[in-house]
Amino acid sequence: MSKPRCRLCGAELTRTFVDLGMSPPCESYLDASQLDSGETFYPLHVRICSSCLLVQLPAYISGEEIFSHYAYFSSYSDSWVAHAKRFVDEAVDRLGLGPSSFVVEVASNDGYLLQHVVARGVRCLGIEPAENVAEAAVDKGIPTEVVFLGEESGSKVASVHGPADLVVANNVFAHVPDIVDFAKGLRALVADTGRVSIEIPHLLRLIEGNEYDTIYHEHYSYLSLLTTQRALAAAGLTVVDVEELSTHGGSLRTWSAPSEHAPQPSAAVMRVLAAEAAAGLDTVDGHAGFAAQVATVRNDLVEFLIGCARRGETVVAYGAPGKGNTLLNHCGIRSDLIRFSVDRNPFKHGKFLPGTHIPIRPVEELEAAQPDYVLIMPWNLREEISAQLAGIRVWGGRLVVALPRLEVF
Fold first, then answer.
1. Which of 3, 101, 289, 345 is 20 to 30 Å from the Cα of 78, by its Cα?
2. Model-level pTM?
């Protein structure tokens, strides 16, 4: 069998970044009727390109299979909606957007961000491939095209709606199998004098924080600023500024301009590139050692859960995010160690986590169960969720996170 090839430069992928074994698609939640049927598990074997340094998961599953009907609705996270509002307010000021401006968001989900653009009186359009999620945005009054972005579809959208002053692509750049065609779609959408704003989980922070649960089949690429620059440059876009964010365990927000009209990159761009180089991310060998960190996280969590089971203590999970399914499947955890999970998204209630078959219930069932420990799966929302769960102190319950290291608090 031939080795996979790099989605950015086409080189053969011969080096491993980390191999997490086999796991089902992280958003493939099960109904009770499916529990006695087979599930398909795919490799989570992440490579690094020796040529261009892009860290990537081969496209074991197509984007159409994952994203055409999607279980993630952004609006169920209050802090994420607030983050989106802050971005919109800052972008309006930064770019001087007004009633005659036009904003396009790619992977616009349920309108969590564009609702704030509408509130500012700016014309906007969402591009969202998941029809079920796009319907939620349309119900909010946000015009939405149901399509996967690429150079061809981006050109068609721009020919109908006009070029955009701002194109937003938050937490989607890592989710596309053909990253160059997607980047060309961004270039097709943006006006020559416009800007493209992208938010990506930062590979540097993923490594520093042991954030291996962010590796799953819908995350095809794990991006540094260096590799983001290279992918955008292949489509005629130049990174002119960057912001470091705390979201998703540490993210970058890049601002890009069409290359033929781009100003000199800011000092922030040079600073982040220097930090990546200092950490070794400008070389293949500098990416080594992550697999050992991952093994420590797994061993600590499994030992904690087995200890709870031996003492007769109950553990329940809070949240059923895709990232949690990577962690649970890699650790081999089942409902004998975590009784059930609760989630605010009613779409998931009554379903079961893929691979592990842990049941998902409404948040209200926490109080009835009164578990000894609640394991927070979306650890990046730790502060928000800790505030929501303050009431577990009444029965002596405690909170746990597994990442970046096991902590009971």
1. 101
2. 0.86
